[in-house]
Amino acid sequence: MEISVFGASGFVGSRFCALHPGEAHAVARDAVSPAHDQILYLVSTTHNYHVYDDLQIDIDTNLKHLMRVLEHCRERDFTLNFVSSWFVYGTHVELPAKESAICNPRGFYAITKKCAEDLLVSFCRTFGKKYRILRLSGVYGPGDRFSKRKNALQYMIQRLVRNEPVELYAAGTPVRDYLYVDDVARALRLCMDRAPLGEITNVGSGVPARLGDLIHYCRDRLGSKSAITSVEPPEFHRSVQAHDFWLDVSRLESLGFEPRVGLHEGLDRVMDALVAAENTAAAPR
């Protein structure tokens, strides 16, 4: 299988390409025409906070670019594997979230991701094209360009490495579903082989993990001197993100998927990579 990967420069896309050489072919950043009939589409913004600085970026990135790609595929026989996000489920959904759940997304990122799903479905049904929707859980691993808004887990681990204070929302009680980036790449490839066409498949671990427990594990392993305090989440955060969230991954498991990297092993790899980066930055030149 040869696969045109849109968004190949991103965290998940670059790892997918690295793990599937010979199959995965990176599409240039601004290109809209795939070279192959199997498409993995990962072009996306990454958080809900652009509403404060750029009202157009989520629309331009998550919707307009996808429409340009679909326009170039109108006359082709293709399968578009669209990578979406757990954010589309919204703040009020029965847990673990099943693919059949009614979505109620909050925030520009989440809303435009769900809109992109719906537009893709409508296009493919109108023109008889094939698609899959693959909704990712939280993805983590070395090499991510994280921030306080995007991949907060690794942002806090970096602060632990630097012995800087760490603030946990709601005493670290929120629960999340995390899957190591290599396992995500493997799961996406498996879905392209085996997941049903025209349907949604959740891609995650299906294991709820309390954020505070993970941060305390990392602090202990690092021997960090960071002070960890509890703060109340800002109102905006509470309005756009669920307090607890994890996925039902029974469909993914039925395809034969099992994670290879456990959560603590994956966190160890993240910590080792961040420590090495700090040591390199501090070394005399």
Keywords, please?
alpha/beta; 285 residues; 9 helices; globular
Measured as a percent range, the helix fraction is 25-40%
Shape descriptor reads globular
- Overall mean pLDDT score? 96
| Percent strand | 15-25%
Query: Could you name the CATH topology of one domain?
Result: Rossmann fold
Kindly report the oligomeric state of this protein: single chain
Determine the CATH superfamily of one domain: NAD(P)-binding Rossmann-like Domain
Q: Give the number of DSSP strands.
A: 11
Number of helices: 9
| Series of secondary-structure elements, N-terminal to C-terminal | EHEEHEHEEHEEHEEHEHHH
Termini Cα gap:
45 Å
CATH architecture name of one domain = 3-Layer(aba) Sandwich
Radius of gyration: 19 Å
Major sheet details = 6 strands, parallel
Poorly predicted ranges: none
Q: What strand line-up does the widest sheet have?
A: 2-1-3-4-5-9
What is the CATH class of one domain? Answer: Alpha Beta
Structural class, by secondary structure, is: alpha/beta
